[in-house]
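Quick one: examine the sequence and fold tokens given here and explain what the tokens say about the fold. Here goes:
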Amino acid sequence: MTSERVSATMNARAADGKWNGGRIPYGYSYDKESATFSIREDEAAIVRKIYDIYTSTHSLVQTTTAVNDDGYRSRRGFKWTPSTIRIILSSPFYLGTMRYNYQDESAKTFSFKHQSEWILVENHHVPMIDKEQYDICNYWLQKNNRSKLTRGSHMQQKNTHIFAGLIHCGACGSTMVATLDRMRKDGYRPSMYQCYERRQSHRCKNIYVNDLTVGNFVFSYISNMLQLRASFQPTYQEKDLQQILLHGSEFSMVKSIMPAALSQLLLVLQKNTIGINEYSYNKTHSCGKSDDNKKKSLLKADIAKRQRALSRLEDLYLFSDESMPQKDYLQKKLKLSQELDGFQQALQELKKNSVFSTTLTDEKFVEKASALLLNNAMQENDRLFPAIAMQVGNKILKDFANATIADILVKDGKVTQIEFRNGITHVFNY
């Protein structure tokens, strides 16, 4: 299925009030069986407090400080930052409205599409905030933002910080704030990341890191993951996986990877190579892989057929000279829609079961990583991050990082943890 068709399908689902997945908004729980959201009171109390404080202060910084000083933390245990507070205040989800197709993924940094393209489903779930308070908060958010734009937004938009928003302090949990570091002799000017808590109050002692440290570690680790996927043998044990993943000078100080990720990864790789005597990267990767591709092709064909049938059915109902009873139209539409949902779910499950799915989000991730890393001189002794950054540009690296990584923890100048977008976490022991 083309990306255009995928987008169209997801948009149609959203327009029908169906949840397309992703992180559950803070303050809510989601029940898959009933496909409904409910308020999670322990988090909802914090959301309401955020709205109340901002309503009276009109300040993201003051609201952030007040919430953190009271000991409140995010769902993952991190301290709140002005950016995460803004997300809570600006999201219409807390009004009971589901919003979709509003983010412009082609932009350098997060930005909104024109509102005419948004999909808004009102009364989608139980609201947490009343509209009057929501409107007051967003009035001040927009007013304060316009003031900042007139003062210095050009400087903020001029630089692309590859890991901005992804790195958190391993000591206190705060976001690591990005700024420009000094120019290096080779002409590369990396970003540096400093703990927000240390920057504001000096209460955290964690030191800063820059792109040279984080970039070399993260991109070399992903390169090793791809090498492991290509060279995996059914006889491999956890120690073999760790040896391949920690290959390179970037990992000389890492003693080990926490066993949980290695064990999970090994099980998936073994499961996908049962009955295979050889795993050759140059020989279509395996029979199982070929079978999966055939199943995916068949499912995609079935999905395309049902989509065409739905389109023809709608044309027949709306424009045909021979009128179709509404009851017949609705019954046939329901049947086709259910079949379409079933095929789409089966395709998603098949993608989840792909080789290496515990660490790579899907086959598209593998394609992106291969093109970006393995085709850009990521050789054994010549995988220096600055060379890659200067060759492909910060924007491509940032887009790749945001698409594949959910969170990075750093402490004492070292990467201690990488969480990938599917939720699997690799923890490094030094």
User: Anything to note?
Assistant: DSSP finds 14 helices and twelve strands in the chain. The longest helix spans residues 287-319. The chain has three domains: 3-153, 211-283+356-429, 287-352. The two ends are 44 Å apart (CA to CA).
